[in-house]
Amino acid sequence: MARAEAWADRSRGRRYAYEFLWFGLKQGWACLFGGAMLGLILATYLVWPVLWPEGAAPVSRYDVLVVGALGIQALMLAFKLESWEEARVIFLFHVAGTIMELFKTYHGSWIYPEASVLRIGAVPLFSGFMYAAVGSYIARVQRIFHIRVRNYPPLWTTWVLAAAIYVNFFAHHWLPDVRIALFAATVLLFGRGWFYFTADRTRRSMPLLLGYGLVALFIWFAENLGTFARAWVYPGQEGGWEMVSVNKLGAWFLLMIISVVLVSLVHRPEEEPRASA
Question: Between 268 and 196, whose confidence is greater?
Fold first, then answer.
């Protein structure tokens, strides 16, 4: 470590490169739950046809994903990578996500093409863990990067916005989709906000909306991998994989707002100290 620091300190370019490396490593560490879930989804997709080419697997792939997700969660708690308080909030992600999955699959927004035992209706239970992975990331990234904020909106306003976003995910099937208004409200509330973080030694800052947007983008990348591995399938992907529409970025961005608000129940946003005059 000391040699790496000495190497990085020899020029500004090296320092930025070293800091960027640490940023990536820490982001990967924060994504531990989601990364492990995605790895399990891809691994089972590749292994199942090889082991059971005729589709005669003794256990459903989806059921293995449920057990694997429970194992990942148990290990994270056992090794204190998440606190029990965080796990309780992440469980709310699981419940809220499963309710949404039941509704959306009923209305044909997407399907789970494989059979399984551990499911509710058309929704295998592993699906809720994919929402929980987002909550795990947000909780962990705040601790790992020592994130603090400035100009964060009053908490009650964020709760109202998150509730409106969640309701709209359901209501737009019968009522006008107010997504544009929700985007506008998000910009109004969070547009002045900044978060501060430390990847290496220097305190950095970024607009809240930019940070949320970047996370939504990476979730969209993960979603493309998930549909490639046929963890679920959107209309138009039944006959073969194709890239998920970029329009989904908006939905993931709004889901990020819900996620941030839920995690704020455990990790209340802390103010970044201002430099003394």
Answer: 196
101, 85 Cβ separation under 8 angstroms: no
Is the Cα torsion angle 262, 265, 266, 269 positive or negative in sign?
A: positive
Q: How far apart are CA 202 and CA 211, in angstroms?
A: 18
Quick one: tokens of 58?
């003794």
Measured distance CA(145)–CA(269) in Å, rounded: 13
Instruction: For residue 102, give the 3-state DSSP assignment.
Output: helix
Q: How far from chain centre, in Å, is Cα 90?
A: 11
pLDDT for the residue numbered 87 = 86
Q: Give the integer Cα–Cα distance in Å for 257 and 48.
A: 36
Long-range pairs of 185-189 with CB within 8 A, sequence gap ≥ 24: 185/161, 186/161, 186/253, 186/254, 186/257, 189/153, 189/157, 189/158, 189/161
Closest CA to 200 of 21, 28, 27, 31: 21
Q: What pLDDT band is residue 18 in, cutting at 50, 70 and 90?
A: confident
Token reading at 257: 């707002």
CA-to-CA distance for 141 and 124, rounded, in angstroms?
A: 28
Which residue type, as a one-letter code, is found at position 236?
Answer: G
Side chain identity, residue 207: P
